[in-house]
Design a protein that fits this description.
7-stranded antiparallel β-sheet; alpha+beta; two-stranded antiparallel sheet; Umud Fragment, subunit A; elongated
Length: 192
């Protein structure tokens, strides 16, 4: 299947844009971080296995923030900032505030998006088996695409019929006994 040229250009540009964003994210040049939510403490706002996109350094009271406590990244709602430089947080699914007081220096940033179920995919891709299975699937799609393109006749699409070539009549294909080829008039044409 031969793709139209504009479609191929759009696909190439989309892949280039994705690679650029991924490269900027991995090198730390983007002000965003992505984390996976593993617990029900933010249910129903952010269910487990969702991903949270965090903008570093920007947060306000009442916003869901991500911060580190005891070496773990936690995403809870910021309830208050105290004059001593600590914060009070609470998970939306919890009845009481969190038992710890975290200094503001431990805040990563405010959550700007929380796509549901994206955490499943991120967790899967980070495993060696997940990355390998996605790579194998992409190679299979590439091979099938190439095979289907090879089956389409050149110069046409799937709906066109192959052109018929006109064969020379048998009398015109035979050489005379003397070995000299002379033109033969058959069906309104000269054949050599």
């Amino acid at each position: 299947m031969k793709l139209p040229k504009p479609f191929s250009i759009v696909v190439a540009l989309a892949l280039l844009a994705c690679a650029t964003v991924l490269g900027l994210y991995e090198t730390g040049h983007l002000p965003y971080r992505v984390y996976v939510v593993h617990t029900c403490s933010m249910t129903p706002t952010i269910p487990p296995e969702s991903a949270v996109v965090v903008r570093e350094g920007q947060y306000e009271v009442g916003q869901v923030i991500s911060f580190t406590v005891h070496g773990e990244v936690v995403s809870h709602r910021l309830m208050a900032i105290h004059p001593d430089g600590t914060i009070t947080t609470k998970g939306d699914g919890n009845r009481t505030a969190d038992p710890w007081r975290v200094p503001t220096s431990k805040i990563i940033g405010g959550v700007v998006a929380a796509p549901r179920h994206l955490g499943y995919l991120l967790t899967y891709v980070k495993t060696p088996l997940g990355a390998a299975s996605i790579l194998v699937a992409l190679i299979c799609v590439w091979q099938i695409w190439g095979l289907s393109a090879a089956l389409v006749p050149e110069g046409g699409d799937e709906g066109s019929r192959p052109r018929r070539t006109r064969r020379r009549p048998r009398a015109a294909r035979r050489a005379p006994a003397g070995g000299v080829v002379s033109p033969v008039w058959v069906r309104g044409r000269f054949w050599i």
